[in-house]
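Session log. Operator J.P. requested a structure for one protein chain; no other inputs attached. Running the standard single-chain path with token output.
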Amino acid sequence: MYQRDLSEVNDLKLLPGFLKDAMERQSFEALSELIPAEVMKRARRVVLTGNGDSYCASLATRLFFNKMFGTPDVFAERCVDVGRHFYFGDEEDRSETLVFVTSSSGTGARVTEAIQRADKKGCTTFAVTTNPESNIGKAADYVLHEKGDKVWSFPFSGQSFTYSNAMLNLYLVALYAGVCRGHITREDEQNMRAEMLRYMQSVVDRLDAIDQQMYDLALNWKDTVGYDFVGSGYDIAAAYFGAAKGFEYLGCYNQYTDSEDWCHINFFMRDREKIGTVAIASKNSPSFGRTVETIGTMLKSGRPVLVVSEADADEFPEGAELCQLPDTILLELKPMMSFIPVTLLMFHLGRMRGLEFFTGFGTSPLFAEKDMNKLKTSKVVYVD
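Structure written below.
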């Protein structure tokens, strides 16, 4: 029988320290020196974009940008859309459109296209990257990056840290904008930073128990062949990330969606007893009630169901496995931690089956093929 591998959980225990260090480097004062307050005050539209986990970071923070900027005109778009399809408008001051392009390496073809097109359109551009000398770093008006020496090492879960770092940078610049635009005070901003650190530490303090639960669940789900991840609003990011880990750790069939669309589409899938189904259900989310209804439908259809939530078990239909996370007073912060249980579950399922895909203990055979997916070598074009 598969013995519990601690590689992933041991990496994730470093997360609060890593993010605290990054937060201190990206202080309010540092942001105010980097980005003139007037840039934030004049903004009328915000576009968040990235690929893979970086796109997921855009999904995670979009609604927070809505709140901090006080505008509905915030979009989380895929890079191929920003680079080739997005309509920037003809009769407007495009410098009032802020485009945040997120990529850890900053060297991919599509992220390069996205920032170059936004720049040519006259937008104000931001690179969220660990590599300021990258394509997007050199093209951006402003660069949000991890400064200082690279003292952190994550032997296995590097993607969880690049994702968390991207989210953190986006959260902090949104908080800065909220102060500049008068939607929150400096005291509010400081309190939110403190709550972010407190919340992260509270989850990490329970990581051993969470990891043990996900290990046990992986053993119980030994016959599952595909996975379904469901979340709405702020919870959609964890659903997306879980699906990504399913591909990267298992190479399996899986997908993500919201609690309403699941009832329209995924409801009809067959062989349901073999589909591990995960619902992210933040208890103070406006869509919590609908997600609870959807969980009931999942169970009635014969699916094995995991719920990730801060709510108590009696809030959910009987039969669902609950991974209960510590709570935070800020709904907006839930994406910072809600991805962890689904990441650990996918990790243990992959290790239990001896699979060595995207990262860690081995390499996907697809990666042995030179330039297979052309992420960095695809032709960069300008379509307008």
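Operator note: Residues 158-180 form the longest helix (23 residues).
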